[in-house]
Amino acid sequence: MPSTMWTLIVAAIIAVVTALAVGLLVTPRMEARKKRLGEVHTARDTFGTTMLRIISACVLLQKFQLPPDDEPGWTPVTRERLAGERNRWLQQLDDATL
What we know:
The protein has 98 residues and is mainly α. It has helices at 2-63, 76-97.
């Protein structure tokens, strides 16, 4: 019977020491790694969003041309709105490339 009790006590002590070692040595490193990986994923997502914004602004600017001034059917208000939209796309492109 004493050998069974001794085995249980040794197993309990080993479990406590292992739990303390993991809590003191492994957990802080895992938390630091988790933070670094989170920052990497955030940077990658930001880069992807910025690249998508750049690509869409470039495609819109390539497809869109302001009509000439003597083009019939285009009012000055429409021309002004189109120019404003084009300027907005250019501003988005500038912001994204910064």
